[in-house]
Amino acid sequence: MTSIEEQLLLRTAAEYGVPGPVAQELMARTRPCLYLVPHEEVPASRRGNARPAARTGGLPALPDGVDWPEPRNPLVLSVDCAALPHDVLDIELPADGHLLLFTEIEYPPDSSVVLHIPAGARTTERSATYEFNGEAEQVRVYEPRTLYPMPGLTLDSDWEEGPQTRAFLAEDGAEDTLDGFEEAVLDMAFGGHRPGVCVQIGGHSDPWDMAPDEGDLVLFAQMAGQAIDYNVFTMNLIVGTREDIAARRYSSLQYDQQC
After folding, report:
1. What tens digit of pLDDT does each residue of 82-111 get?
2. Complete edge-to-edge strand list for the sheet that includes strand 54-56
3. What is the C-alpha to C-alpha distance for residues 174 and 15, in angstroms, rounded to an integer?
4. Packing angle of the helix pair 174-190, 6-16 (nearest 10 deg)
5. What is the CA radius of gyration of the chain?
6. CB 258 within 8 A of CB 208
7. Is this structure's pTM higher than 0.85?
């Protein structure tokens, strides 16, 4: 899983004037994630080995006998599981095949669907046009954009509640110091400046409102609307239990749209 070597963490903390115990409290509240970003946002140090693993938008390729899921929400994300880096996440995704996410990103969806298409399945790209009550209808199709997986770290929004951190924050100027250290650590894990607008798999959520990944629920994926359509300003979050995610019980996932 994505991590930072402890000595490097402590050296960075010292550079920022952050006590070692505070740095260790920070690391204890991290979770690894995968950012899915366009090629231009891949850190320069990692571009040579970068390989595409996902796509926003486009049309779905579905197996014979599998129709576009009702109520025919747009396809917003396709993930090639075999192309994802292995041993990064702390949630269990399929080792191969494709994950397809259908949802509405412009308005709160009535329903959303995650499908796993097994590797080797014979598939056909489906048309966005269909018939409803004798009338021709069309599903919204977003512009396809190729995405590259980059490991990163995410922080629990409540990590500053640790006793060492609370004591440090009582000092003058400590809040700005801690903000700078936090940003440096998360950028270091990514290998460059982290993307502000992206698709994220796993990790802690970065919500605009209440975090949906609480209790037994963990983040499966979150998608900024602008990562799919530049003119859509929403945050779309999908959560579930670790057990349901590992067992591919995707119908049990929960969806939250924030705007």
Report:
1. 999 989 999 999 999 999 999 999 999 888
2. 113-117, 98-102, 75-80, 54-56, 145-155, 30-37, 199-201, 217-224, 235-241, 254-258
3. 14
4. 140
5. 20
6. yes
7. yes
